[in-house]
Amino acid sequence: MSAGLDGVLGRPKAEWTPSRDAYLVELFIEQHNLGRTAYNEYKNVIRSVTHDFNKKFGTNLEENQIKNRYNVMKKDYGIVKALLSNTVCRMVVADDKVWDSYITVRSEARPFRRKSFPLYKQMSIIFEGERANGKKLASQIPRIQFEHCYREANRSADMLARMGANQSSSFSLHSSPPEDVKPLLEFDNSELYLNRRYPITLVNF
Fold first, then answer.
1. Considering the entire predicted model, what is its pTM?
2. Rounded to an integer, what distance in angstroms lies between the CA atom of residue 50 and that of residue 11?
3. Alpha helix (H) ranges present in the chain?
4. Long-range contacts of residues 125-132, Cβ cutoff 8 Å, at least 24 apart
5. Which residues contact 188 (CB under 8 A, 6 or more apart)?
6. Contact between 17 and 118 (Cβ < 8 Å)
7. Are 35 and 86 in contact (CB under 8 A)?
8. Measured in Å, how far apart are the chain's first and last C-alpha atoms?
9. pLDDT tens figures, 36-45
10. Angle CA(110)–CA(78)–CA(88) in degrees, nearest 5?
């Protein structure tokens, strides 16, 4: 694999191999075992992992490059988890008709049609642990209560949730409302409301 530039100020391009990916996952598992995750010490985790990774391979990667690889792994893990049918060999097994049908709906799964995902079990420690820590964090907040709310009642929150589901990073902090949310906030401030329509089934007696 030849060296290149990452396109940012002549930064050396990160070269990822199976052995490097495996060691990177191992480093994140070590951080997880120390109780440091993306939910509580994300910056410190990335900084520590970057240092140890560069020391191991004699590279000079930046924290953003490690963070980007982490996000790619997290995305791939989510894709494989959604379609995994053979957890023994870490490879999805299905006939061509099933694959063709699935890829029509979920095109992002195409790369895994002929490719194994050997680090699935190890990645589950990291990413499933993140979800568990998120639930644990919520449980530590006093008097917290979750209630269902129709999207028409809070379209701003609905838009933020959609944006979060589609973003590659695990955490985003906004100093001001995103552009897509601003008009929704203005609508909320107008004190107008939206009706929600329900289908009605007529019954003849």
1. 0.55
2. 15
3. 18-33, 42-57, 63-83, 96-105, 120-139, 155-166, 182-189
4. 125/29, 125/32, 126/25, 126/28, 126/29, 126/32, 126/37, 127/74, 127/77, 127/78, 129/32, 129/37, 130/37, 130/38, 130/39, 130/170
5. 154, 155, 156
6. no
7. no
8. 75
9. 877 668 889 9
10. 80
Q: Which pLDDT belongs to residue 22?
A: 94
- pLDDT given at position 186: 82
pLDDT at 60: 93
Q: CB-hemisphere CA count at 13 Å for 169?
A: 10
Does residue 65 register a pLDDT over 60?
A: yes
Weakest mean pLDDT among 20-24, 59-63, 115-119, 136-140: 136-140
Beta-bridge partners for 12: 5
pLDDT tens digits for range 161-202: 778 777 766 556 677 788 888 888 888 777 777 776 666 665
Token pair for residue 122? 């190890």
Calpha distance 201→205 (Å, rounded) = 13
Structure tokens at 59: 């590279």
Residue linked to tokens 């530039």: 5
The owner of tokens 């680090």 is 119
